[in-house]
Write a structure and sequence with these properties.
about 350 residues, alpha/beta, 434 Repressor (Amino-terminal Domain), Rossmann fold, 6-stranded parallel beta sheet, 6-stranded mixed beta sheet, 12 strands, elongated
């Protein structure tokens, strides 16, 4: 029977590992003089097998060149299962630190750790999630800024449900809570408060025309950081000037181009907040190309505190986010090592350096 044309494009059944040539479990069992079920218990690490039997089976496996199919064991609920870290893109040291934190927990628990990117492609994202479900992943961490809206929430709800069917959990990392999905756990850092603190620092230093570069109408992190910018202006009794909040990709070259137009204005801002450190570096390039000094002519603040920001000239004032800790907490929640508490938000802090003293 032909499936209806409106049926969702999802794979049916469970794909197992491809067969390989060479010795199999029965061969090992015969060489060791035990039953296949006993040999299977040896490779599964069962404590019920006598030590001398275990030694015979392992010796037979070595003689025959038998390799345990770890994927097959994981799919049957035995052996090591994987913890997956998915991101739209692996950009800079921030994602690396988050992934490293998560991996430290996975390694402690004896799990494999997998990193993959979706390229912001919903079809690839869905395919990766389905593959991880089929391979019985222990947990999936979905990391970083994403699109907002009903369609994204629908996909996340589907992924969380599918993982639950295999005893796994989905946790959003570096992402705000989704009110419509209270059962989906998330771990974030204070993005709104981090930028708001930076704005309070700038306004306390006397800045009144402050720009924000890196807005995006439909991405979670830029939207949160823009909110912190707006709240910081209001804290100082200043109105939000839309012409000073520029949309720009999270790319240094794009930020340099946008900043040049901004800094050429006769009423140019005296300070600029970049949505990331990479965007802030773009502001540096633009300022220097126009003969402007930092911070004498324009103060600059970033977000992330990526490595080597202290080595810039002048060193960059930036918001430090606890990316490693986000990865650790996310992995612990995903593996059930910490009590599930819905949404966790870790503090960020402003690191004041030379670019905005």
């Amino acid at each position: 029977m032909t499936a209806p044309t409106n049926a969702p494009n999802r794979r049916r059944g469970t794909r197992g590992p491809a067969p390989t040539s060479g010795a199999n479990l029965r061969d090992v069992a015969a060489r060791a003089g035990v039953s296949p079920s006993t040999a299977s218990r040896v490779f599964a690490g069962s404590p019920l097998v006598r030590p001398d039997t275990r030694e015979r089976v392992l010796a037979a496996a070595e003689e025959l060149g038998y390799v345990v199919n770890g994927l097959a064991q994981a799919m049957m609920g035995r052996g090591r299962r994987s913890v997956a870290f998915l991101a739209t893109h692996m950009i800079g040291a921030t994602f690396a630190a988050m992934a490293a934190g998560a991996e430290s927990v996975a390694a402690e628990q004896g799990n494999l750790f997998i990193v993959s990117t979706t390229g912001d492609d919903a079809a690839r994202e869905r395919d990766l999630m389905e593959t991880l479900r089929e391979q019985r992943a222990a947990a999936v961490l979905f990391a970083g800024s994403t699109a907002t809206g009903v369609e994204f929430e629908r996909r996340i709800a589907e992924y969380a449900h599918d993982l639950e069917t295999i005893g796994a959990r989905l946790v959003l990392c570096g992402h705000p809570a989704i009110p419509a999905l209270p059962n989906v756990l998330s771990v974030d850092y204070d993005q709104v408060g981090g930028v708001r603190t930076a704005m309070n620092h700038l306004t306390s230093a006397g800045h009144r025309r402050i720009a924000f570069i890196g807005t995006h109408p439909n991405k979670t992190s830029p939207l949160q950081r823009l909110r912190g910018y707006e709240l910081g202006l209001r804290d100082a009794g200043l109105t939000v000037d839309p012409s000073l909040a520029l949309e720009c990709p999270n790319e240094t070259e794009a930020a340099a181009h946008a900043s040049q137009e901004l800094l050429r204005r006769s009423d140019r801002p005296t300070a600029v907040v970049g949505v990331t450190d990479g965007v802030a570096i773009g502001v540096y390039r633009a300022a220097r190309s126009l003969g402007l000094a930092i911070p004498a002519d324009v103060a600059v603040v970033g977000f992330d505190d990526a490595p080597h920001m202290v080595d810039l000239t002048p060193s960059l004032t930036t918001v430090r986010a606890p990316f490693w800790e986000v990865g650790v907490r996310g992995a612990r929640l995903a593996l059930g090592l910490d009590e599930a508490t819905g949404h966790v938000e870790l503090p960020s802090r402003l690191v004041v350096r030379e670019s905005a003293p």
